[in-house]
Amino acid sequence: MRLSLLSLSLATLLCACGADGGGAVIAEAEATATPDSSTRAPVLDTGSLQGAPYRIEIPAGWNGELVLFAHGYYPEGTDSRALNEANPRLQPLLEQGFAVAASAYSAQGWAVAEAQADTERLRRWFVQQHGTPRRTWLVGESMGGLVALASAEQQPGAYDGVLSMCGLNTSAEEFFQQAVLPGLVAFDVLYPGVLLLDPTKVTRTALQNAASI
Q1: Most buried of 24, 36, 200, 206, CB within 10 angstroms?
Q2: For the segment 87-145, what is each residue's pLDDT rounded down to a tens digit?
């Protein structure tokens, strides 16, 4: 998978280390015609794909390339509609002629599997509705960086380049064992009762409380 100057540009532009369509069904077959972007007017395509709000923006004079963006971790209960608003950090890409697309995911919390599926579903939706991009790039930050790397492994032919920014570039199991659990245990020893941590297991509630501190 090749990288280009676009990767450096994306890192500079993005790395700051954060209407319902009724659950449309995505066709398995993808369009094959490359869109004629020379006279294309701006497009704003928003909706929901199987419970995941999405936002697609295509600028006037689209250069034919697409940047898919995978956001990072948000605690369970976060309103996914708020995550689907315009991202000002993606605006420079639009100004340079790139189309941008982002899914707010069908679940929040540690939702790597859902995020992968929702991002791939959005990529297919873009192709079906707006044509096959000349090149497609996948950018993720934090937990979204893991989503980006995992997606590149599972759909190696779908992307021309992948960028993991401030990414969690390890397995979820290793991350929790080496980065999360030791901190939770130490915090619970120093401040007993704050996390309501069961010494025999780490509950979802405890992880959420830890994420909010």
Answers
A1: 206
A2: 888 999 999 999 999 999 999 888 889 999 999 999 999 999 999 999 999 999 988 99
Spatial separation of the C-alpha atoms in residues 98 and 57, rounded to whole Å? 9
**Tens of pLDDT, residues 5-36:** 344 344 434 444 443 333 333 333 333 344 55
**Tokens coding 156:** 């190696």
Structure tokens at 165: 């920014």
Q: Where are the beta strands (DSSP E) in the chain?
A: 43-49, 52-58, 65-70, 99-103, 135-141, 161-165
CB-facing half-sphere around the CA of 96: CA atoms within 13 A:
14
State pLDDT tens for residues 46-65: 999 999 999 999 999 999 99
Reduce the secondary structure of 196-211 to three states and give it as a string: CCCCCCCCHHHHHHHH
